[in-house]
Amino acid sequence: MEPPVRQTHARRDDDGAIRATDSDAALARLSAVSKHYLSDPFIKSFVSRPHLQQPRPPLINIGTYVRSEGLDALVDQWLELAQADGTQAQVVSLGAGSDTRFWRIATGPRRDALRAYVELDFAENTIKKAMAIRKSKELSAVLGPPENVTLAGGGTTLHSPIYHLLPADLRLPPSEVLTPLLSTPTPGSSEPLLSPSHPTLLLFECVLVYMAPAASSRLVQWFTGYFESGVLGGLIYEMYGLEDNFGNVMKDNLRARGISLPGVEPFTTFASVQSRFAQYGFVTSHALSLREIRRSYISPAERERISQLEMLDEIEELELVLEHYAISWGVQLPQNKDTLKARWDTWGLVPYGPAKGV
Ligand SMILES: C[S@@+](CC[C@H](N)C(=O)[O-])C[C@H]1O[C@@H](n2cnc3c(N)ncnc32)[C@H](O)[C@@H]1O
Predict the structure, then answer these.
(1) φ and ψ at 151, to 5 degrees?
(2) What is the DSSP annotation of 44-101?
(3) Residue 258: how many CB atoms within 10 A of its CB?
(4) What residues contact residue 49 under an 8 Å CB cut-off, 6+ apart?
(5) Which residue among 91, 228, 306, 353 is buried most deeply as judged by most CB within 10 Å?
(6) What whole-number distance in Å separates Cα of residue 321 and Cα of residue 325?
């Protein structure tokens, strides 16, 4: 049984400020693309007047680049492992905002690896995203023939053969919110939207920080229960260790915008981030700070290319910022399935050898 969650929680005044963090993420990505750190032909369709947006400072662009490279590599590897297992994977992106990952995968070399790609966010954000998708020929074309794409829920919900955009407040009891959306058959089908037997990756990119730890645990628990006899991966990107001066300044700035970060509180140290998925009961549990990913997990050729893009005076400042963000990941596997374990245990970032200075 899940402990009761007050319904009033869903309509707190600061929800608008939390939803608006999506624009920050989209603008940061647009900036990194415009400065050639990343390539993403789809992000401009999710930003209003993209050509008028000011680029972000180099430090932010590098952070966006490192975050994106780390997450992309792990998602790609998940899809590759599923293919090597002779099956297709599912991805569930929670608090997806304006993320373009589905379009990048669906137009890339792993397009055949996806069985389903599900995005969840507040209804106010999914309605905006559904509108942006309908408005853009480029985005719509990737979803499949128009007759196979349907809008529902007053425009807050979009279904296509593989991609599904769904409204949900992730803090509410999962049995009320997720069960009807993900585990009951979709209209016109006898299958649930999410198959419990396909390897499924949960992606939490900068979202759990806005939720109380108890609500995050409950959310993850719903998925671990649903995928009890299947393969489930978890991937989290967010801040940690915000007890120092840097963290206090960040929290003050966000507080001034009406945003608090209850989800970051248990994660005061890197070790606490590393054991996060173990705490959720997963069999593997790993983490790397963005600082470490930049130092040792980006190829030397890429590091060289990135260093040429913009002048960056303060490497120490960059490292301080990157040290406060981490990517953590883990896998839950059914018991006594050694062959599955041998394959899925290998999921993780691979270093390029020892760090050679910065
Ligand atoms: C910082 S943005 C990140 C967007 C996207 N994941 C990315 O990294 O580009 C945080 C997103 O999480 C969503 N979010 C935060 N709390 C949520 C909740 N309780 N239920 C649903 N979505 C939530 C926000 O609406 C927003 O779109």
Answers:
(1) -105, 145
(2) GGGSSSGGGPPPPPHHHHHHHHHHHHHHHHHHHHHHHHHHHTTS-EEEEEET-TT--H
(3) 14
(4) none
(5) 91
(6) 7
**Sorting pLDDT into bands at 50, 70 and 90, what band is 162?**
very high
Going from the C-alpha of 113 to that of each of 75, 77, 79, 88, 343, the distances in angstroms are 11, 11, 6, 5, 16
Mutate to test the pocket of ligand 1, among 7, 15, 18, 211 (most ligand atoms within 8 A of CB): 18
In DSSP terms, 202 is beta-bridged to 92, 234
**Domains in the chain with CATH codes:** 14-344 (3.40.50.150)
Question: Probe ligand 1: pick from 121, 217, 237, 264, max atoms within 8 Å of CB?
Answer: 121
Nearest to residue 80, comparing CAs of 351, 350, 293? Answer: 350
Task: Count Cβ atoms below 10 Å from residue 353 Cβ, excluding itself.
Answer: 7
One-letter amino acid at 112 equals D
Tokens of 240: 């940690």
Distance from the alpha carbon of residue 23 to the mean position of ligand 1, in angstroms:
10
For residue range 319-357, what is the model confidence (pLDDT) as tens digits?
A: 999 999 999 999 999 987 888 888 999 999 999 865 544
205 carries a ligand binding annotation: yes
In DSSP terms, which residues pair with 239 in a beta bridge? Answer: 325
Distance from the first to the final alpha carbon of the chain: 50
- Tens digits of residue pLDDT in 43-64: 999 999 999 999 999 999 999 9
271 CA → ligand 1 middle, Å: 25
Give the Å distance between the CA of 315 and the centre of ligand 1.
Answer: 30
Residue 240 predicted with pLDDT over 60: yes
